[in-house]
Design brief:
It holds the Pfam family Rossmann-like. The chain is elongated. It starts with a strand and ends in a 7-residue tail after the last helix. It has 275 residues and is α/β, with parallel strands linked by helices. It is 55% helix and 15% strand. It folds into two domains: 160 residues, NAD(P)-binding Rossmann-like Domain (Rossmann fold); 101 residues, Orthogonal Bundle (N-(1-d-carboxylethyl)-l-norvaline Dehydrogenase, domain 2), CATH 1.10.1040.
Length: 275
């Protein structure tokens, strides 16, 4: 039986609790959050675990999952190092490596990080979508093995990531996911400014985004890229960039940078000049 404690009952914590609730041989014991109400909601949602008020109230566990915001991980690690018996601790930050758990490592704990590459906008939806989710893992070999086994049992696909390059790794996920959403927001704003009806603009965005995603998956970014930047149509790029800048200066800057990167990608297969 693997006993698991959860520190941080937000969307990631709730999702993992939902996933672990259905696993044989895994028991979610104690759940701590900044607000007791959050911990209570998490235990009610997952129908597992016990909400507590302090780390000192948490029982011994084999695995501690630290699903708190990045800026709280180090503080939680320091608290645990001074109050709990050594075990395994894993945080779920995509940006920080397991080195942030240094106080625990110094106290005899095994530590790792595990970042599921998934949108956690809604815990129930995220739990339903988790099967096949890639999870970046690094840290001590024993902790890596433990979280790898757990991820696989939950339906995820663990993969190794260079701990020294976690920031760049996470930035890649931000570009692939978060910034794609921002660009869709710019497109919707531009269509609205151009007088396109809202329902038509939504349909256009859905159609274009779906097609682009399918083409990238099938062909790769270089072959999938089309449009004036891919063609090197400087007259269109200059005129269109000026129109965008006049409407929305920040979007105009993004348009010019992305156009330059798009041309380079089409010509060389990479966006970085010395790749």
């Amino acid at each position: 039986m693997v006993r698991v404690n959860i520190v941080g009952a937000g969307k990631v914590g709730q999702t993992l609790m939902l996933l672990m609730a259905g696993l044989d041989g895994v028991i979610v014991q104690d759940v701590l959050s900044q607000r007791r109400e959050s911990a209570l909601r998490a235990t009610e949602l997952a129908k597992t675990g016990r909400a507590v008020d302090r780390i000192a109230d948490m029982g011994a566990a084999d695995l501690w999952l630290l699903t708190v915001p990045d800026d709280r991980i180090a503080g939680v690690a320091e608290q645990l190092a001074g109050s709990a018996a050594p075990a395994m601790a894993v945080h779920c930050s995509g940006f920080l490596s397991s080195a942030v758990l240094g106080p625990l490592g110094a106290a005899g704990w095994r530590v790792a990080s595990c970042h599921p590459v998934l949108s956690f906008a809604d815990p129930q939806s995220a739990a339903q979508q988790f099967a096949g989710t890639y999870c970046a893992v690094e840290g001590d070999s024993a902790a890596v093995q433990a979280i790898t086994d757990l991820v696989e049992r939950m339906g995820g696909i663990p993969f190794a990531v260079n701990a020294q390059q976690k920031a760049l790794y996470h930035a890649a996920a931000v570009f692939s996911n978060n910034f794609a959403v921002v660009v869709q927001g710019i497109a919707q704003d531009a269509w609205a400014a151009a007088g396109v009806p809202q329902d038509v603009a939504k349909a256009l965005g859905d159609k274009l985004l779906g097609g682009a995603a399918a083409n990238v998956a099938r062909l790769g970014p270089q072959a999938a890229l089309t449009g004036p930047a891919a063609r090197g149509d400087t007259e269109v790029l200059d005129a269109q960039g000026a129109a965008v800048a006049a409407w929305h200066p920040e979007a105009g800057q993004a348009y010019r940078v992305l156009s330059d990167l798009g041309w380079r990608l089409k010509q060389t297969g990479a966006t970085k000049g010395d790749a």
